[in-house]
Amino acid sequence: MKILFITDNFPPEVNAPATRTYEHCQKWIKKGVKVTIITCAPNFPHGQVYEGYKNKLYQKEQIDGIEVIRVWSYIAANRGVVKRILDYVSFAFMAFFVGLFQKADVIIATSPQFFTTWAASGLSKIKRKPWVFELRDLWPDSIRTVGAIKQGRVLDLLEKIELSLYRDSDKVIAVTQAFKANLIDRGISQKKIKVVTNGSNMELFTPREKDQTLLRALKLEDKFVIGYIGTHGMAHSLDFITQSISKIDDPNIHFLFIGDGAKKSEIVSLASALDLKNITFLDPIAKEEVPRYLSIIDVSLAPLKKSDTFKTVIPSKIFEASAMQKPTLLGVEGQAKEIIEKYNAGLCFQPENEEDFITKVKLMKDDKFLYKSYQEGCKQLALDFDREKLANDMLEILKNLM
After folding, report:
1. pLDDT tens sequence across 350-382
2. Which conformational region is residue 339 in: left (phi greater than 0), alpha (psi within -120 to 50 degrees), or beta?
3. CB 94, CB 71: distance < 8 Å
4. Residue 366 CB neighbour total at 10 angstroms
5. Could you tell me the pTM of the whole model?
6. Which distant-in-sequence residues (6+ apart) come within 8 Å of 388 by Cβ?
7. CATH architecture label of 212-384
8. What is the mean pLDDT of residues 263-279?
9. What are the sequence ranges of the domains in the chain?
10. How many angstroms separate the CA atoms of 196 and 174, rounded?
11. Are 253 and 223 in contact (CB under 8 A)?
12. What's domain 2-199+387-401's architecture?
């Protein structure tokens, strides 16, 4: 079986789409599947090509048994509108052209942005092979929510394109049940949609003792550390979190923000203006380093802006944290909240509710019995969302398409 996978994020990038794709492909290769990735030069989120790479017309490499083809694209930072669309469209065009020369039994294209699926749709028609729309985000609905594009007509046009691509695909694989329900409400056939959630890499993320060397280096010994590891973007409400941190008077509570994104400089400036002593900012870290940093935190923070759109989202960081028995402090409503509460794997606060956030922070620190019960809940959550099982589920869907 040959899979052609089109994604504009792939390692060494460390965001959620890159990680999910890489880990699924690793599992499929072990099952004897040949996987070819078409992606671009790694540049997320700043639009700067990573060291060791060039934005060349065509380059090929092997990453842990996966054939990776990197194509040229107009590279832009993860902010703004016009340049990002040029980025997306140029990649879609190049992925389509290079994809013409790749053998495949099935073609997959992954969102958030759906221009990757244009390439998959076109290749499907020429090659007469099925194609799958992997739905990671309700784009452009999420763009509307964060205000990245103001023009209503543009968003309406993008939504029409979005729906046409769902209908054109042979299968939609959504990462949440809420995404599936949204599509059904908008007229997409229920039979076309399958759900394969995000999950935990149980080989990489395992319970371990706190890394004392790292704690000392960051001067966080004897602190109750609440950590956020991920994109500092427009959707993540980290400005609200930073503002709220200024109201926490317990000197033993410390926040650790690791990552980068369109809003990072603004958040760092806000923390500086507030003269916060209980927050530390670090640059992005490699995926294999994430467990080491997760080991030193006590609670994993997962916030999003308050919006009905984000009620459909399940932050992937809750699965990684749970695999390491780190309870989640979740600022997301909807399905993500249902999961945390079902497994008793942490506490949920109302998105962008400062009083509720501060109350839940203090409760997580002060109630040792409750904290221990959350760790037990994390164990079962991680087992039920084991990435290997989920990758196998997705592979069965792909085989059935053939």
Report:
1. 999 999 999 999 999 999 999 999 999 999 999
2. alpha
3. yes
4. 12
5. 0.85
6. 27, 202
7. 3-Layer(aba) Sandwich (3.40)
8. 96
9. 2-199+387-401, 212-384
10. 6
11. yes
12. 3-Layer(aba) Sandwich (3.40)
